[in-house]
Structure formats: C-alpha cells, structure tokens
Amino acid sequence: xxxxxxxxxxHIEQSNILLFEKYYIxxxxxTIELYLDEKRVQLKGFYNSLYTFIAQCSVTxxxxxxxxxxxxxxxxxxxxxxxxxxxxxxxxxxxxTLYTIGKSSAVVKNKDGxxxxxxxxxxxxxxxxxxxxxxxxxxxTDLFALxxxxxxxxxxPYVVTWNIDYMPKEKALRFLTTLVDSCSLLEKHLHSFVRIxxxxxxxxxxxxxxxxxxxKKTIGLYYKYDRPLLMQSALFHExxxxxxxxxxxxxxxxEERRKLYVQLLRMPTLKKIxxxxxxxxxxxxxxxxxxxxxxxxxxxxxxxxxxxxxxxKEFAFSIEESQxxxxxxxx
Length: 331
Description:
Blueprint: E1 10-13, E2 16-19, E3 23-26, E4 31-36, E5 39-44, H1 46-59, E6 65-71, E7 74-84, E8 88-93, E9 96-102, E10 108-110, H2 117-133, H3 143-146, H4 149-152, E11 159-164, H5 169-189, E12 196-202, E13 210-213, E14 218-222, H6 228-246, H7 251-265, H8 268-274, H9 281-288, H10 290-307, H11 319-322, H12 326-329
Parallel strand pairs: 11-12, 12-14
Antiparallel strand pairs: 1-2, 2-3, 4-5, 4-6, 6-7, 7-8, 8-9, 9-10, 13-14
Helix pairs in contact: 1-2, 5-6, 6-10
C-alpha cells in the first residue's frame, strides 16, 4: 500500500511490521499510542489508527501530535503531524515529509507531489465519520477546559484572576506567552510589582489594543496576530492606568503626580500635542488629560527600561521625559 520506509527500529510493508529487524507483528494486531498535546490514547491496528490520527488533527488543532507503536513496554515514536500553510498537514517520519494532506479535502499527496488515491479515499471515509461524531466547538468559557493545569497557571505570579475569549488553543498560548514575558519585565523593572486584579483577554479588534476599567480594576487586552510588541506596549499602558488608579488614594502620590504633570506640560512632547493643527480638539484634550498622560508616560518609561531607546509609537515620550516617572516610583 504505502509507507514502504524503514529505519533501524521500524519497517512496514503491506500488513507486516518489522521491529528492530527481528520482531514481526501483524499490523491489525499492533497497539498504537496517539499523543495529542498532553492526552494519550491507545488504539489497535496500525492503518486504522493512522487514519484516526490524521482525522483528529484535521478537525481539531493539536500543536503536539505524535503517532507511536507500543511493543514490550517500549514506546517507539514513528510519525508526527505538522500544520502547514494552506490548511494542510505534513506527515513526518524522522523529520522528513512523507505526505501532505488537505485537512478539509482529505487529498493526500506523496513527497513528490503525486496524488495517492487509495490513501485519500480511505482517509476521506474516516474523516467524514469523525466529523459527524465530533462534538460541537466549545463556547467562550470552554477554552479553559482545553488548557492544561500548567498552562492555566502561567499567569498566576502576575494576575489574581483572568479570563479569555474562545480562540484556537495555539493562538491562546501565543497570547499567554507574550503576556508572561511582558509581566516578567514589569516585575523586573518595578520597585514593587502589583499583581493585576483581573485580566480579560479578547480576540483581536481592529483599532483597539486594550482598556482599563477602574470600576472592576480590570485590564482588557486584544490579541494582535504576529505583533507581540504591540501587545506588550498595550499591557504596559494599561498597567500604568492600573497603578495610577491604585495609588490615587494616597495624598502624597497625588501631589507628586500633579507636580510631574505640570512639569511635563512644559516639555516638548505635550507641547507638540497641544499645538497640533492636525488633531481634533477633543482628541487633544484626551491625550492631555492627566490619567492618559501618566499611563502613556509609564508605557514610555517601561520601553526605555527594556530596550534602552525611545518607543516608535506616536506621542511617545523622550528618554529624558520618560525617566521622570521614577519620581512616582519612589512614593
């Protein structure tokens, strides 16, 4: 049929499997283990298990997907499925592509790009059955059910409580990894790091990066595909709002904040905004309000601390201006 390939541990031709050059197993009687993310499933039969393996990965995304054969308490990894562009999967053997597979069409082509009719038809039959029996997609709150305990705990050092909109797991993990890296920078560069009371993570929204809701002490952030620095700067900005809100009941902080604001109004960045002829009066007033100035100053301060250069974002403060934020950190 196919897969007439070999290595030192494994060789299959038709219905015979040869292990370690000395053990023969009938393919229908062998035990197969599928490792999908952190879940292990054992099945009987080589080919049937392989079709099931591909069908599952065609319908549901699995960043880690390995097909192994079990023999005498040994687990022998054979194949790996890898996501490709164009809604395709690559079936890898020893990191070499054996086949490319259309996730929705079940069209299978060998490494030379030739259509494998037998493989395609058998896979299509399994894929149709699997789709019919597959449960519906999880709702928004069900994403947590797809995360392991370790993944759920990623933000624990930095966030008290968090929630996330439903999105593909791979996308969610990229989002979480970016935020963990960014939160670790906040902790590193702040004299006293304050855990975020509540963090709400959203799918992308054009024109919006984040928000702070003082009534719920909530930071909200929007996923930005392949733009981790934009997500990082959004976190820095909204965290600046959070700190400003939390310290606003401290009379000494309020006085130092007022003096800093007056000083910044006399410096180039805010003077340029105030004198702008291109911006609307309403937008200028927003950019110059004290809450927005302090949050933007904190964002610029963090960028300078991390990258030792001025942010390229519009209305970013200079290095000299950004360093003035330290007067608030001392209080």
